[in-house]
Amino acid sequence: MGTFKAIRIDKADKGTTAALTQFDEAELMEGDVTVAVEWSTLNYKDGLAVTGKAPVVRRFPMIAGIDFAGTVEQSSHPAWKTGDKVVCNGWGMGETHLGAYAEKARVKGDWLVRLPDGISTREAMAIGTAGYTAMLSVLALEKHGLTPKSGPIVVTGAAGGVGSVASAVLSKLGYHVIASTGRMSEADYLKGLGAAEVIDRAELAGPAKPLAKERWAGGVDSVGSTTLANLLSMTKYGGAIAACGLAAGMDLPSSVAPFILRGVCLLGIDSVMCPIEQRKLAWNRLASDLDKGKLSDITHEIGLDQVIGAGAEILAGKVRGRIVVKIL
Questions:
Q1: Do 177 and 198 meet the contact criterion of CB atoms below 8 Å apart?
Q2: Residue 189 CA: distances (Å) to CA of 185, 294, 297, 321
Q3: CATH class held by domain 129-268
Q4: CA–CA separation, 67 and 125 (whole Å)
Q5: Rounded CA gap, 202 and 194, in Å?
Q6: If DSSP codes are grouped into helix, strand and coil, which group holds residue 271?
Q7: Torsion sign across C-alpha atoms 302, 306, 311, 312
Q8: What is the tens place of the pLDDT at every residue in 211-265?
Q9: Percent of the chain whose pLDDT exceeds 90
């Protein structure tokens, strides 16, 4: 056994510290599959972890990073063999289990999803947890019964990772997408992804009315707080909002009015502990329903040594689209 490069988070007198360093392979946690990590990505939660802005990490030392794509190096799990291309996200990686910002990862084989045909490991991380979460949100809206004929779909935080992928997928599926953003300078970018309309997030700010004018049949919300409350108050009868993020906060200053007077549903989206069959469905749908050209347009690449700085950028709302992290 030897050492490998990794972003290690340690507990400090005040908060935590994060640094790119050498990690001893003997310190890897238990698991029946060892993966040579080729690509990872930067998500909002990763930004919180590497900057220490929120107590994401719950064991120390920790290797940061909540998702990876790579090649199986060793396996004692019956489903996986050396050379298999896999993707993994959630399951507590980067929080309670050593994560993805490293040249090696050891995980449970039951956590892995086989890379769909037609998606490279780099493309898988261009999608990443953000894109996979966006797809889970789309699947939830479809399960609720929404179709393009139901009416417009609003996407909040539209210039971010979840929002960018959600906008691209929904538009390809034929939905009229209303993209909400705090960066109206990104309007052309969002229209390039397929948004039919771009609105300023200020329209969803301020205290929410119990019921406001009906504007959309559904939505994908990665913002939470007052934004989500306003979305619910403006959702058409029988519509639904898929809630998958909390960029603006964990609170929900709403009322029961949308639920009991318009039959609106709030659909909770959890990407971390999502059952494996739903994960497989989401990744296979991404392979077919996400335009590769648009994915390329919203993606830029950084090295492992740039992750900590980029983590601060994503928390400041300065990151557009998706960031892939080259590991090997």
A1: no
A2: 8, 10, 9, 10
A3: alpha beta
A4: 8
A5: 21
A6: coil
A7: negative
A8: 999 999 999 999 999 999 999 999 999 999 999 999 899 999 999 999 999 999 9
A9: 94
